[in-house]
Amino acid sequence: MSPIPAPDPLFDLADKVVLITGGSRGLGRAMCLGFADRGARVVVCSRKSDACEALAKEIDSRGGESFARACHVGDWRQLDGLIDDVIERYGRLDVLINNAGMSPIAPSLLETPEGLVDKIIDINFKGPLRLTALAATAMTATGGGSIINISSLASRRPTPITTAYSAAKAGLNALTQASAQEYAAVGVRINAIICGTFDTDITAGFVRNPDIAPTVVEPIALHRIGRPDEVVGAALYLASAASSYTTGSFITIDGGVAP
């Protein structure tokens, strides 16, 4: 399958270098395929090298170009090497999508262990914070770029079972706005997508459970769970010249959850 031609120069991503964390499954996988099909050179990044390699081979078989690079986003020490390897391979980085995350639940705030809180903060907030700084610095040397943070509706509608996760994603929202202000002058735009419930392997336990799914769907105006590919359009917009005057902003994709 050949890459899909860009329908408009505003959305042209041909030869752009796009790094997507958490890229081997779920929303990340959908974005890796979507960007590759439109001519971007995609860096597939996740913790497991075999998963990265498998998706990279699939992208290549579709006529795209990819680079598999395993990295644990929650390990601060690994992140410098990740950006360095992308620059060494391609000479530039145009788009970073901070998609990697984890959203475990706990029975109560008191029963939330410190180790779990540390993991949630490391992956959902600290990793994106460090990658934003490193990527923006690299982008500055080549004329700018776009950073997209994948946030969650939980950041704005927190619940007791997702307290730590909600707090981490709220921090990611703050990072989005603050870093957008810091890097605007050097041509780096930073935005976020607020995601509702999507059907992925992580959410399969409840969105595909006939006893639970109706409760999940009930507040959604479109009355269904989102498909992973339905996040791709917003990501393409934020990554391209079509959003050249957009920074520090949020796009909500949740099917119309009732306020």
Defining traits:
7 strands; 259 residues; alpha/beta; Rossmann fold; globular; 41% helix; seven-stranded parallel sheet; 15% strand
Characterization of the model:
Residues 16-197 form the Ketoreductase domain. This is SDR family NAD(P)-dependent oxidoreductase. Its EC number is 1.1.1.-. This protein is an alpha/beta fold and 259 residues long. The protein has a seven-stranded parallel sheet, sandwiched between helices. The chain contains eight helices and seven strands. Helix content is 41%, strand content 15%. The chain has helices spanning 26-37, 49-61, 76-90, 114-140, 163-183, 204-207, 213-217, 232-239; strands spanning 17-21, 41-45, 65-68, 95-98, 145-152, 188-195, 250-253. The chain has a single domain, classed as Rossmann fold (3-Layer(aba) Sandwich). The radius of gyration is 18 Å and the shape is globular.
Write the layout of secondary structure elements.
Layout: E1 17-21, H1 26-37, E2 41-45, H2 49-61, E3 65-68, H3 76-90, E4 95-98, H4 114-140, E5 145-152, H5 163-183, E6 188-195, H6 204-207, H7 213-217, H8 232-239, E7 250-253
Helix pairs in contact: 3-4, 4-5
GO molecular function: oxidoreductase activity
Protein name: SDR family NAD(P)-dependent oxidoreductase
Enzyme class: oxidoreductase
